[in-house]
Amino acid sequence: MNNPTPPPDGAEKWEIQLRKGSLELAILAALWEGPLYGLEILRNLESGSDLVVVEGTVYPLLTRLRGLSLVASEWVESDSGHPRKYYRLTDSGRQRVLAMARIWSRFSASMSSLLAPLSQENPRHQQPGRQPLTMEKP
Predict the structure, then answer these.
(1) Other Cβ atoms within 10 Å of 41 Cβ, number
(2) What residue segments make up the domains of the chain, in order of their start?
(3) pLDDT, tens digit (0-9, with 9 covering 90-100), for 33-71
(4) Is the dihedral angle over the CA atoms 63, 61, 42, 33 positive or is it negative?
(5) pLDDT single digits (tens) 96-129
(6) 20-116 has which CATH code?
(7) Is 76 helix (H, G, I), strand (E, B) or coil?
(8) How far apart are the C-alpha atoms of 32 and 98, rounded to whole Å?
(9) What is the C-alpha to C-alpha distance for residues 116 and 110, in angstroms, rounded to an integer?
(10) What is the pLDDT of residue 6?
(11) Distance between CA atoms of residues 34 and 22, nearest Å
(12) What is the pTM for the complete model shown?
């Protein structure tokens, strides 16, 4: 019998939702420097962040962003023989990503401030036999 993958625990579920919630900002930010085709967007997200995203997630989101007039797309012939669909920010997409980046900066700064005590090793607040909580990856 195949062992099914166990469901994610509470922290993993929360991380998944956090990543999903930030994906729109990440895609718009990836397009800031100029037009990219789908695979380039995926590579940009993977190399520039911890976001590992599959095509089945990105393309529906790009379609939604296009429907909101935040991105535009066009087919461009490539040297490899098949055309590629390139996506670029529209003027309203550039305005939106700037606004989202300001909100993200304020939010992440306030969260960092709130979480700062968690990353400090302070034996007075540590329970006997427990390791201090750090915000670093193991």
Answers:
(1) 22
(2) 20-116
(3) 999 999 999 999 988 787 878 889 899 999 999 999 999
(4) positive
(5) 999 999 999 999 999 999 999 998 755 555 544 4
(6) 1.10.10.10
(7) strand
(8) 10
(9) 10
(10) 64
(11) 20
(12) 0.77
